[in-house]
Amino acid sequence: MTNAETQRVVERARRFRELHTDGGPLVLPNAWDAASARVIERAGAPAIATTSSGVAWGLGAPDGEDLPLDTLLALCERVVAAVDVPVSADLVTGYGEDPAGVGRTVARALDAGVVGVNLEDSGPGPEPLRPVAEQAERLAAARAAADDAGVPLYVNARVDTYLRAVGPAAGRLEATLERAAAYVAAGADGVFVPGTCDLETVAALAKGIDAPLALLAGPGAPPVAELARAGAARISVGGGVAAAAYALAGRAASELLASGTYGAIEDQIGYGTFNELFHRG
């Protein structure tokens, strides 16, 4: 990156970091391509976060790291170019067999202009999660890559104990807090705990984690205001918006093919309005 490009990324990184601590919560309706990012920005979102599942589905791959890293980062670069707000990228487990590989991935993500990353602790082996020390090293490598680039990247460390129902339910909170503490010590700025929106659990997580708590919400979860009162600093919906959009495509196709009518597509962004979103003069 040129000096001017680096400075622009640094400024966006600082803005994104502040959004987690300015009285929030930071609410992120996740995007999966440039168009969804512009629509979400137009709705008033102060930042954009990509969803690994939505990105993968839109590019013809299952969620995970089957999608080539080059393809993922090219998509991230398009999203960054399409919006004026900070962009955080879901990098799944970091696309690296070892910490050095994660560091290289993060360096490339910074070159694409992203100012935040999600890195999950799900593992490729027989165990559902990586050992705590191993994941801490991967997060430390991400932090070091950002420091080397001079960018205050927001590293959101995802803890999948609840999402994957790891271990006895009675010990899950303690195990999550243990992982969170190690990840923050390794350089994570925030901790993302998908898989629970139980208000009592959220309150205990927020109290026990020395960093902003991020949650994954959706249908059936308490409203954002209640999650915020329980201590959540950041709330996203993952692939929920993408999945709903594809469900609409399915309903519209079924209606058109079965009855020849168009009710499912009556409520849409007008052609001119959509085109205007991409006139970046």
TrEMBL record:
<keyword id="KW-0456">Lyase</keyword>
<dbReference type="InterPro" id="IPR039556">
    <property type="entry name" value="ICL/PEPM"/>
</dbReference>
<dbReference type="InterPro" id="IPR015813">
    <property type="entry name" value="Pyrv/PenolPyrv_kinase-like_dom"/>
</dbReference>
<dbReference type="Pfam" id="PF13714">
    <property type="entry name" value="PEP_mutase"/>
</dbReference>
<dbReference type="GO" id="GO:0016829">
    <property type="term" value="F:lyase activity"/>
</dbReference>
<dbReference type="InterPro" id="IPR040442">
    <property type="entry name" value="Pyrv_kinase-like_dom_sf"/>
</dbReference>
<protein>
    <submittedName>
        <fullName>Isocitrate lyase/phosphoenolpyruvate mutase family protein</fullName>
    </submittedName>
</protein>
